Amino acid sequence: MATRSMSPRLMMTKPLWYPVGLAVALLCVQFAARTTAELFLVALMAIYALAALGLNIIFGVAGLLSVAQAAVMAFGGYTSALLMVRLDFSFLAALPAAAVASALLSAFAGLAALRVGSHYFILVTLGVAEAALLVMINEEQLTGGYNGLVGIPPLSLAGVDMSSSDAVATVSIVALFIGWYVANAMRASRFGSGAAAAGADPQLAMACGVDVPRQRVLASAAGGAFAGVAGALFAEALQFLGPGDFGVDKALLLLLIVVIGGAGSNGGTVLAAIMLTYLSQGLLTLTTVGPLVYGLGIMVILVFVPRGLAGLAGTGRRVVAAIARRERRQ
């Protein structure tokens, strides 16, 4: 089967967008976000965007509808936090462990899906999410139960104190752009082509020589690793973890981010994460009508922009190109 590969020109030019985008994002944070609450919101946007990029690999590319991403994110967060609290690990030492632990949990869900078929994958992931929630609640000596896990050390990188709100936001943004770059590189690789083929038409992909079960498990593991890193950053941003932080509402938020961003589009996913995180946090102050306004807004977007922000951008480019062609004819 012929697979797509990144052209030399694309490899030379596209990565340049990441440092430029990172510099712009950091400048915006420094000038726009001043209060602790605003900086925390910026960090939360980056963290949810990173977790959603992982879900985009699982759902947007490999075509596996998962509602376990929040639970996988929690697994990474608790792994990182417990290693730091109980075993005195540094954050940089605990971070890879969080990514690996979450990747293994997500891969387990992918393996289970092979038994039941992709159509029932959502039920498998729902079971994983509920099981993870029960562990967080019932294993009080380990996780703190309903009271949560406290005493998480402040963020520190190579001995440098990064616990201030602006430092946490900056580290989260850097992690997001690294994750964005990796997600795009994976999408342009042989693995990304195989996973996309498996998600689009499994039978045709198998006929063309793609190992569909292997691609699905690898996609699940890769998406889980993104969630694990996001969970570790989330633990540092709050310095607290509790079951309420990773409920079904967070799982649906991550899924909505991918759908509204445009399944398969990493750029759309990041933009949707910024938008939906801002709306979901901002509407919390409207305790009576906030959820109603948020729900109606989501419905309007899904009805009028069914292909997400990525589809809307594509439509805009086609309109601009059509206008330009018309002007040239005249």
How would you explain this protein's 3D organization?
The protein is mainly alpha-helical and 330 residues long. Helices cover 76% and strands 1% of the residues. It has 15 helices and two strands. The chain has a two-stranded antiparallel sheet. A hairpin with a 2-residue loop joins β1 (156-157) and β2. α2 runs antiparallel to α8 (165-187) and α8 (165-187) packs antiparallel against α11 (212-238). The longest helix has 27 residues, at 212-238. The chain is globular and about 65 Å long. Residues 1-13 have low confidence and may be disordered.
Summarize the structure.
By secondary structure, this protein is mainly α. The protein contains 15 helices and two strands.
What structural class should be given to the helix and strand makeup?
Answer: mainly alpha
Enter the CATH topology name: ABC transporter involved in vitamin B12 uptake, BtuC
Helix content: over 70%
Beta-strand content: under 5%
